[in-house]
Each structure stands twice: as structure tokens, then as C-alpha cells.
Design the sequence.
């Protein structure tokens, strides 16, 4: 196993640590005695895990440590971290007045990811070559989702989390439509769909 893949695996191992810290902090908020060190630890774990995504990719490219295992585990680790943070910060209030991600936003993110995974499976099982390449819209989508997560965890801006969620939701839909178009294009080029 390459060093880059070990970093990716460490990101996966940090996910439950983040979730436990985030949930315990949320419970302390519910008890009206917020334990701020839990919030800062959860934030530090999340930032460390998120930063490791760039680090393992750089190491894999710089030191020629690309591997099939790394190509499979890296997006799994990314999605696990992101979805865990979104789901946790939806179910647990991190402040007064419903300081959490709205349920509709989380549902939208999950539905988009399920549609993309379903489309990839359809293409795979119908014998199509599926090269999973990140789209520009997908990167913007991830960044805006991270901003929404950060908005909740940092609690610096006093405005409701609904505002970054609306922007992230629009980018999530845009990205999902882009991936659907790509899938339909692959089917069309093979003559198996009339688009």
C-alpha cells in the first residue's frame, strides 16, 4: 500500500471521530452548556481530514504513487467525510434557533449522489466504459457544500445557515444535471439512447 493510500485511509478513520465529537457538542448545546472545546476539536478533525484529500492526491502525483486501490478508496473517503458531516450537522443543532443544516438540503445532496451512482451502475452493467472524471460543476458543488458545513461549525457569521445552503443546493442541482447529461451522452454515442 502506498503512502498516499495510507493518508486516504487515515481520512476514513477520522470520519467517526468527527461524528462523535460533533454529536457530543450538539448534545452539550441542547443541554444549554456548550462545551466549546468539543466544537473546536470537531472542526480541527474535519479540516485535517478535508486537507488530507489534497495532500494524498499531491503525493500520488508527485511521487508516482497512483494505484487502482487509491483511485477507488479516495472518492469513497471524500464522500464518506462530506456526507457524514452533512448528515450529522442536519440532525444535531450546533446553536440556538435551529443552527443546523436543513433536512431538505441533506435530502437533495443524498438524492443527487444516488442518481449519479445509479447512472454509473447502469452504464457499467450495459457494457459502457465509465471514466469517472471530476466535473467543474462537481468541484464548485463540493466547495459550496463545504462552505455550508463551515458556516455551521465556525458560527462566525450571525446569519442563518439557510443562505449558504440555498447556494450549495443550486450548485448541487447544477452538478447533478451535468453528470446526467454526461451519462446520456455516453449512451447516445453508443446508439443505445435517443437523446
Sequence:
Amino acid at each position: 500500500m502506498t503512502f498516499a493510500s495510507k493518508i486516504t485511509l487515515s481520512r476514513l478513520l477520522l470520519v467517526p471521530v468527527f461524528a462523535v465529537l460533533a454529536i457530543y457538542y450538539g448534545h452539550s448545546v441542547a443541554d444549554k452548556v456548550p462545551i466549546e472545546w468539543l466544537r473546536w476539536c470537531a472542526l480541527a478533525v474535519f479540516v485535517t481530514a478535508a486537507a488530507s484529500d489534497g495532500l494524498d492526491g499531491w503525493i500520488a502525483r508527485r511521487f508516482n504513487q497512483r494505484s487502482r486501490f487509491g483511485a477507488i478508496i479516495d472518492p469513497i473517503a471524500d464522500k464518506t467525510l462530506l456526507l457524514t458531516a452533512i448528515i450529522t450537522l442536519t440532525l444535531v443543532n450546533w446553536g440556538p434557533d435551529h443552527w443546523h443544516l436543513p433536512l431538505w438540503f441533506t435530502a437533495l445532496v443524498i438524492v443527487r449522489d444516488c442518481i449519479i451512482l445509479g447512472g454509473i451502475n447502469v452504464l457499467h452493467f450495459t457494457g459502457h466504459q465509465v471514466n469517472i472524471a471530476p466535473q467543474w460543476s462537481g468541484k464548485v458543488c463540493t466547495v459550496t457544500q463545504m462552505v455550508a458545513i463551515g458556516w455551521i461549525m465556525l458560527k462566525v457569521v450571525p446569519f442563518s445557515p439557510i443562505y449558504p445552503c440555498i447556494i450549495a443546493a443550486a450548485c448541487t442541482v447544477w452538478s447533478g444535471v451535468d453528470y446526467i447529461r454526461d451519462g446520456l451522452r455516453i449512451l447516445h454515442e453508443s446508439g443505445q439512447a435517443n437523446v
Q: What stands out?
A: Residues 3-30 form the longest helix (28 residues). The helical segments are 3-30, 36-62, 68-91, 103-125, 136-154, 162-189. Residues 151 and 157 are 7 Å apart (CA to CA). DSSP finds six helices and no strands in the chain.
